[in-house]
Specification:
This protein has 169 residues and is an alpha+beta fold. The chain folds into two domains: 80 residues, ACT domain (Alpha-Beta Plaits, 2-Layer Sandwich); 71 residues, Alpha-Beta Plaits, CATH 3.30.70.1150. Helices cover 27% and strands 40% of the residues. The chain contains four helices and nine strands; from the N terminus they run E-H-E-E-H-E-E-H-E-E-H-E-E. The strands form two sheets. Strands 5, 6, 7, 8 and 9 form a five-stranded antiparallel β-sheet that branches. Strands 2-3-1-4 form a four-stranded antiparallel β-sheet, covered by helices on one side.
Length: 169
């Protein structure tokens, strides 16, 4: 099952390494990782997405809680979260008619916008779920995708209580 772990840590050097090491030692593939400082100065938020069973999630949370700089850790399913990713998609074009078609394709869905145009390509910014972004990429493939950069997931709980939070006791 896909889980999103939210890890709050002190913003200190080496924390990312220690968190990554927990996943590496258990041979867990991280699908997405986003890190940012939050409104509380000196605290960072790690959002980590991976596929694993609930029992493994609990073990990973216990291991993460042993890291001195970790303040809080919890795991959530997709149903418990509002989440998005951001993508920049560079698409080639040959004629002005292609540009019009590209504009029409991207306007069919929310969160899409042309941010740059030159003589040979268009850069589109899109935000949404992984599936929504992938759907747009598929629609644009016939024009020739030149580059795609997709951020990691950003997520917040819909309600205040996550489904899995293991105490540090």
């Amino acid at each position: 099952m896909k889980y999103t772990l939210t890890i709050f840590t002190e913003n200190k050097p080496g924390v990312l390494y220690r968190i990554a090491d927990v996943f590496l030692r258990r041979k867990i593939n991280v699908e997405s990782l986003t890190v940012s400082e939050i409104e509380s100065k000196g605290i960072s938020r790690f959002t980590v997405v991976q596929n694993m069973e609930e029992e493994m999630v609990k073990k990973v949370i216990k291991q993460l809680n042993k890291i001195i700089e970790v303040v809080r850790v919890y795991a959530s399913t997709d149903e418990e979260l509002y989440f998005n990713e951001i993508a920049l998609i560079k698409v080639g074009y040959k004629t002005k008619g292609d540009i019009a078609t590209i504009y029409n394709l991207i306007l069919e869905e929310r969160g899409n916008r042309v941010v740059f145009v030159n003589d040979i390509s268009v850069i589109i910014r899109s935000y949404g779920t992984e599936k929504e972004i992938q759907k747009l990429v598929e629609k644009l493939k016939p024009f020739g995708i030149k580059d795609v950069a997709i951020s990691g997931r950003t997520a917040v709980l819909i309600h205040d209580t996550p489904s899995i939070e293991v105490s540090t006791d």
